[in-house]
Each structure stands twice: as structure tokens, then as C-alpha cells.
Design brief:
- The chain is of the alpha/beta class.
- Helix content is 31%, strand content 22%.
- The strands form 4 sheets. A 6-stranded mixed sheet has the order 2-3-1-4-5-6, sandwiched between helices. Strands 8-9-7-10-11-12 form a 6-stranded mixed sheet, sandwiched between helices.
- The two termini are 44 Å apart.
Length: 441
């Protein structure tokens, strides 16, 4: 089930980032009382009344402003709206309805998406005279809120979740391996899929961002069923020198949410960039199996140390993903492309592997004997037992005497012991510590 996406849009300085931070429960967006401060979309996973969704904070929209940064923000907001299941259109209750608000409303109507009209900065239930001007937008009942003091946020969240699509299940069978091909624009995502399929099923171009939407391509190979999710770049609609890389992140995020395995493509000419780290981080945090694929390897001049040094650099740059195998390929010359599906099937199996409770506890007992758990003020960590509670990704719960004693370093040690014995190559594994409840006498 893909999580619904909710985009918060509006002109600059109406309080989108303050609202976002309040709902996300932490300060993520930069908030400053100056238009245009929130430059990039920010994402957070949110849950309300057992409804999980992804909330997107966008830069403010100024439809007719030619400033490059503001134009980029407008484009990012348009992309967020294009991808969102529900749009929260935020207005400023203190300044009232503006011409810019009316222009944004025109853009939103064309999306034909469910829209929740929100009037922020209403600090009490007493509404100002110009509040009723917002009805003239013809977009339904405006909801008055205050992001700062939390007024009516529960009512707003109720309205948001009520507009979620009823069925977000894509209908693929359980045995189908869903593969997201992710990475910044122009790294060769579409070319790789075309090479693997042996036919031009996806548009290929040298211009960054020519694939409009994520394209699903189901196919079979050696009796195994796959679906490739090609994450799109965005076609430029203006001559503004936009940073197209920023626009790929949302597409990557939605594709990652729907996938089992992520192919993280890196351009061999550029190495690991900050954008690559960010996209790889989303795959890691989402708990997806991952393969790091270095494309355009044919363009690199090599000596005896090139492969070793390149691999070392990737491991340093993506140190949080040391479990992910690295494959050097060239979509153009088809070098090692035949290995990709072999790797995909392998890491998908690792991603869904289970360890019996008995075998896991034998491993934990041995690990504890080899390296005694930490202690604090005379109290030592005790791991009573462990169990695997789920797969995709493999998730383990360790029942302990005191979670405060379960230091990160020791839990990482247990994880390493699990990997040494069972490999789990290509997938993150999650270990949680819980205190064992004492029986009442």
C-alpha cells in the first residue's frame, strides 16, 4: 500500500513551514518571517487516526514573479501538487485574500485534486470580517487554524484524511518484485531499463528531466515477475535556469515507497554527489533493499587501482549503506547489465529472509559471551531473548531489562553478529529494544 501524499501550498509567508513543523512534531523547515525562505520541499511521515501519509512542505508560490529562486519554488510546488493525493491550500487570515491567492487558486483548480482550503493565523475562534472573502474562491468551506497555538489542527487533519483515495493498492501479486530505479536526472535510469527490457519502452534523452511521470513496466525473466518503476525527471516548461536535480527527489520518494528493491544509480563521471546521498538516504530510511549501481563506467579511464579506489570512496560517502552491493555497469555498452536482475533477485530474497527464534537466540547468547553488554552505575544490560517480528525489511525485537542500557553501539554489535551469520546483504535490518514486563505476583 503506497502512502498518500499531502502537499501544503500557498504564497510565501502564510505559515506553511510553521504548520508543517507543528504536524511533523519537530522543527524541520527553516522558518523566518521573510517571503521565500523555505527554498526546498521538505518531507515528513505523519500519522493521524491510524492513517499514515507523507506531508510535503513547499516553497511559496508567486505565479508571475520572474526571480529565479521564486520561479524554482513555483516549479517545485507545481510538481508537489502534481504528485499529491490531497492539496492543502494555505492562506493568511491576517492579510486577507490577495490577487496572488486567486492566481494560485486557478493553478490548483487545474490539478483536479482534492483541495482543503485552510486559513492560517486565526488566533481565536472570533473570525475577522475579511475571513468570508475566502469563500469567493469557490473551493469549499475554509478551515480557520492557528499553526502557532494549534487551533483547529485536529479538525484540519480530519478533513485531510477524509479525502484520501479509498484504495491505494496497486494490485501486484505478492511474488512480483517491485524495483524502483532512482537517482538524479540524466544518470541513465531510462537507458538502463531499456537495455534490460531490450526495447525502447521508456523515453531516453540527453536532456535532464524528460520523463514526465513515473512509469511502471511489468515483465518476466526466467519465470520471475518484476515491475520496474522508472522515476521521472521533470520536463522544463520555461527558460529559467532551474536546478532540475531538486525536482527528482519527490519522484524518487514516491517510487521508493512503492518498491521492494531500489537501484540507486550514480554517474561514474561525477561520483557520489550530495543529491545521491539524499536519495540513497530515503531508500535506507524507508527500509528498502538497495543496490548501488555505478553507470557510465565505460567512460572512466582505468588503471589497476581505479575499481578499488572508486569502491572505497562510495563506501565512505554512503557509510550508512555498507550492506548494499555495488555494481559497475554501462547501459550504453551493456557491460555487466546482465548482472542487474541477478542482484535484484538476490537482495529481494535477503530482504524477506526470516531467522527462527531458536537460531536467533543461540546467536545472541554467543554474541553476549564474546562481548559482555554495557553497564551503568552497577546495572548491566541483560538481553532476555530476541525474535524476528517482520520482513521487508527484517525487523527484530530484543527484550531487555532496561532500554536505557541498550546503547546504540551494542545494538550495532548485535546487528553485525546477525549479518556475519546470516549475511542480509542488500537490506537494512532493524533492531528494537523493549523492556520485558515483570509478572505480577
Amino acid at each position: 500500500m503506497a502512502k498518500p501524499i499531502v502537499a501544503v501550498v500557498g504564497r510565501p509567508n502564510v505559515g506553511k513551514s510553521t504548520f508543517f513543523n507543528k504536524i511533523a512534531g519537530k522543527r524541520i523547515s527553516i522558518v523566518e518571517d521573510k517571503p521565500g525562505v523555505t527554498r526546498d520541499r521538505i518531507y515528513a511521515d505523519v500519522e493521524w487516526l491510524n492513517n499514515k501519509f507523507t506531508l510535503i512542505d513547499t516553497g511559496g508560490i508567486e505565479p508571475n514573479n520572474n526571480d529565479i529562486i521564486l520561479s524554482q519554488m513555483k516549479r517545485q510546488a507545481e510538481i508537489a501538487m502534481d504528485t499529491a493525493d490531497v492539496i492543502v491550500f494555505m492562506l493568511d487570515g491576517k492579510s486577507g485574500l490577495t490577487t496572488t491567492d486567486e492566481e494560485i487558486a486557478g493553478i490548483l483548480r487545474r490539478t483536479k485534486k482534492p483541495i482543503v482550503l485552510v486559513v492560517n493565523k486565526v488566533d481565536s475562534n472570533k473570525l475577522s470580517e475579511h475571513f468570508y472573502d475566502f469563500y469567493t474562491l469557490g473551493m469549499g468551506e475554509p478551515i480557520p487554524i492557528s499553526s502557532v497555538n494549534g487551533l483547529n489542527l485536529g479538525d484540519l487533519l480530519d478533513e485531510i484524511v477524509a479525502r484520501f483515495p479509498e484504495d491505494t493498492d496497486e494490485g501486484y501479486d505478492e511474488d512480483v518484485i517491485k524495483v524502483a530505479v532512482i537517482g538524479k536526472p540524466n544518470v541513465g535510469k531510462s537507458s538502463l531499463i531499456n537495455t534490460l527490457l531490450g526495447e525502447n519502452r521508456v523515453i531516453v534523452s540527453d536532456i535532464a528531466g524528460t520523463t514526465r511521470d513515473a512509469i511502471d513496466t511489468p515483465f518476466e525473466f526466467n519465470d520471475d515477475k518484476y515491475v520496474f518503476i522508472d522515476t521521472a525527471g521533470i520536463r522544463r516548461k520555461s527558460r529559467v535556469n532551474e536546478n532540475v536535480e531538486k525536482y527528482s527527489v519527490l519522484r524518487s520518494l514516491t517510487a521508493i515507497e512503492r518498491s521492494d528493491v531500489c537501484l540507486i544509480l550514480i554517474d561514474a563521471n561525477e561520483g557520489v554527489t550530495e543529491q545521491d546521498k539524499r536519495i540513497a538516504g530515503y531508500a535506507h530510511e524507508a527500509g528498502r533493499a538497495s543496490i548501488i549501481i555505478v553507470n557510465k563506467w565505460d567512460l572512466i579511464e582505468k588503471d589497476n587501482n581505479t575499481y578499488t579506489e572508486y569502491t572505497k570512496n562510495i563506501r565512505n560517502q554512503l557509510s550508512f549503506m555498507k550492506y548494499a552491493p555495488i555494481l559497475f555497469i554501462s547501459s550504453k555498452t551493456k557491460q555487466r547489465v546482465n548482472k542487474v536482475l541477478e542482484y535484484v533477485k538476490y537482495v529481494a530474497n535477503q530482504h524477506s529472509m526470516r531467522i527462527s527464534t531458536g537460531a536467533l537466540n543461540d546467536l545472541i547468547s554467543e554474541a553476549v559471551l564474546l562481548n559482555q553488554p554495557p553497564s551503568d552505575k552497577g546495572k548491566r544490560l541483560k538481553i532476555y531473548y530476541g525474535t524476528q517480528v517482520s520482513v521487508k525489511p527484517p525487523r527484530f525485537v530484543l527484550f531487555v531489562n532496561d532500554v536505557e542500557l541498550a546503547h546504540f553501539s551494542y545494538i550495532r554489535y548485535i546487528e553485525n553478529q546477525i549479518r556475519q551469520n546470516y549475511n542480509y546483504e542488500g537490506t537494512p535490518i532493524i533492531l528494537e529494544s523493549r523492556e520485558k514486563k515483570k509478572k505480577r505476583s
